[in-house]
Amino acid sequence: MPRPRFHSVLHLPHAATLSGRLAYQVDRACTQRRAEGQEFSAPELPANLERLGDLLAPYRLREEAVPPAEAAPVVEEAARLGRAIVDEVERLGLGDDRLGQVVRNLFECLGLGEEGFRISLRAGEDPNSLGRPF
Length: 134
Known about the structure:
mainly alpha, about 130 residues, 5 helices, single chain
């Protein structure tokens, strides 16, 4: 039987790694826009990226599976922060393919593959990216 289209497994250690990649990609996009002479205000964006990193940091080196009761509130808050970050990225026009891919991967590691598939497009992922589920 084929795997479901959006089967994704909760993996908080990798989600922690991806939170750092997301912060890097957002910083890169902001730096590029400023170098092009575009000024913008996004005070919540760095704060939410930092909150996401801090939330997931305790799981970065964890080798054992996280019990569902412990993981559920972390996933809920991480997804909320991820959505807020994407809202700002979209509002500021900072999205690009790589940033969108990191967003999709983050949501997949939170066990929210279908949402990641959709929200990554708002963060700039190319709908034809090879890593997207088919």
